Amino acid sequence: MNILLIGSGGREHALAWAISASPLCDKLFCAPGNPGIDQVARVVDLKIADHGAVIAFCKAEAIGLVVVGPEAPLVAGL
Fold it and tell me: Whole-structure pTM over 0.90, yes or no?
C-alpha cells in the first residue's frame, strides 16, 4: 500500500520510522517532511493547505492511506 504522511515534526518522524518498517507499506511519502524523515520516506513538495493538490497527489500516486500528524490540517478540514 502507498501511504502519505502529513507533517514535519518529531511525531511525524516517529510515525514515518514505524510505518516504513511495516511489510504492508510499499511506498511512503511525506509532506512537507524534514531531513530525518527523508531517511525513511520520499519527501514531496506538497502544500498541505491546498486540499485539491493533496487529493490530486493521492490519486496520482494511488495512496491507500493518509496519516495526518499535526492537528492544524485536521482542523482545516484535511
Answer: yes
